[in-house]
Amino acid sequence: MSGIVLSSSVRQNLLSLQSTADLLSTTQNRLATGNKVNSALDNPTSFFTAQSLNNRASDIGNLLAVRDTGECPCEPAEPLLRARITEIDAEMDRLGRLRGDLVAMAEQLPSATCPDPVPGTWCPPDHPKTEGRCDACSI
């Protein structure tokens, strides 16, 4: 039996159709699941962020289910709530430090009496400086 011979243009069209079919399958899967990213291969950052948020939502859903049964949710809820409060406190601390740095930067922005800093030489106000260079940042 002889094989089928395809011209290069027909072969290219078939490859294009296969690629289109793959993209269509991916799009249909996204529409069916409601997820923008379905695996870490699509977009690792978005996938793991969404997974983390889904896990937290699942924990909260479980707590609400326990509450709705009329049973005391204190035992299963307390460790989960304490863990979430700790996470929130840590994030608030981080954001507070970031806010302080931004305020310090804004206060040191160039004005009519202050020249622009030399690139790479800005140093937070609470860091020690030697010869105009930031000791703590090693800039």
Structure description:
The protein has 139 residues and is mostly helical. The chain has a domain at 44-104. The chain is built from 3 helices and 2 strands; from the N terminus they run H-H-H-E-E. It has a two-stranded antiparallel ribbon with strand order 1-2. Strand 1 (129-130) and strand 2 (133-134) form a beta hairpin. The radius of gyration is 28 Å and the shape is flat. The model has no long low-confidence stretch (mean pLDDT 76).
List the helices and strands and how they pair.
Elements: H1 8-33, H2 44-68, H3 74-107, E1 129-130, E2 133-134
Antiparallel strand pairs: 1-2
Termini separation comes to 74 Å
Helix-strand topology string: HHHEE
Coarse structural class: mainly alpha
Mean pLDDT: 76
Number of strands: 2
Q: Provide a count of the helices.
A: 3
Give the strand line-up of the largest sheet.
1-2
- Report the sheet with the most strands, covering strand number, pairing sense and barrel closure: 2 strands, antiparallel
Cα Rg: 28 Å
Query: What is the helical fraction, as a range of percent?
Result: 55-70%
Shape designation: flat
Which parts are unreliable, with pLDDT below 50 for 5 consecutive residues or more?
Answer: none
Fraction of residues in β-strands = under 5%
Which features does this protein show?
3 helices; single chain; 2 strands; two-stranded antiparallel ribbon; 139 residues; mainly alpha
